[in-house]
Amino acid sequence: MKKQQISGTQTPGYPxxxxxxxxxxxxxxGLSAKRLERIASTTQGFIEDEKLAGAVTLVARRGKVAHLxxxxxxxxxxxxxxxxxxxxxxxxxxxxxxxxxxxMLCEEGKLTLDAPAAAYLPELDGLEVAQDPDADLFTPVKAxxxxxxxxxxxxxxxxxxxxxxxxxxxxxxxxxxxxxxxxLHECNLQELVERLGKIPLLYQPGTKWHxxxxxxxxxxxxxxxxGRAFDRFLTERIFxxxxxxxxxxxxxxxxxxxLAGMYGPKPxxxxxxxxxxEGGTGYISKTSFIKNPxxxxxxxxxxxxxxxxxxxxxxxxxxGTLSGNRLLRAESVELMTxxxxxxxxxxxxxxxxxxYGGLGFGLGVSVRVHQTDWVxxxxxxxxxxxxxxxxxxxxxxxxxxxxxxxxxxxxFSALSHIVKPLVYAxxxxx
Length: 430
Known about the structure:
- The chain is an alpha+beta fold.
- It is 25% helix and 16% strand.
- The strands form five sheets. Strands 3-2-1-16-15-14-13-12 form an eight-stranded antiparallel β-sheet, sandwiched between helices.
- The protein is globular.
- Mean pLDDT is 91; it is low at 1-15.
């Protein structure tokens, strides 16, 4: 039996004002309005069962948003309903945005994908490799080749993972802490790269896919290549041209009332408010996302809204352009959104909780290369990425389809995977 519904709103229909000119009735873009309603009932079920406080879902096709709805509560304690313009911490959904910045600079000739990263960031020159990173003692060996810009974009650079993976007791773990890589919130992007230049790589570049802080190095690469601070580059080159008015590294004071609360399960059942990790660092701070951070994480530092992120996704879906404003060439989007991993580096679908099974990787986004038993609705060629606190987007080029699911819940909610087949099922023949 379902638990009592948490009070709040389900606001059906079309999007907020930030999507004017980018909306269409479902039937106009080959979607069934009735089938899209299943997304609403399913999401509402998560809220009634106290698996989520609230959520926002969005579906677009053929360049137009046909579904945007808000459900439940953005703040249970304050009795504030979720709204379509609620601001979410999107964490790792920051990575594709940084990747677009890199592609823009490549088009301008300021970066080259196959160039050594050290050509732009000399701190990374001559890095050695830990022959056995799990050993109590290690003997560094010479790298077979230098990591490239493309290695950074597809997580084959040999760099370590996020802070939460750096609490071990091996010799390499200790080197991480000696370099203060466990305190990223205290450094800027230049200092991050300087610290990385003092530790060995975990593996030879190009020989393994390892989800890592390589995306944060891209932030510094953008600063060096563009001559602008990373946040300024994103604002001037991506957010403003796309009309992403609520996306940034923190929520200004006049918008704080729109920031969603962060929730997790109570041991006895139900939901409780929990602290939100600081973007890209794993640290908990009372000023997380409400004060401009020192560490501008290209891997996980942004906040955004459903409509803002939809504008970004529509630009990708439309091959680099939105409302007549071109950010990237179509060829750059195609290069970014196709798999670049060889077969031997693609993770296998070993168990249901293996989120990476069947996924290759492009340049800043995952790419579905084969279907798996636990996500059978996924289509080959579909690309996207997640944010660690239950945000996700995916785009199916074949179907001209965009889907965004936003919540604020730790651990990661299953909502986006339950919604996915409903989105595909809403496609109807013209």
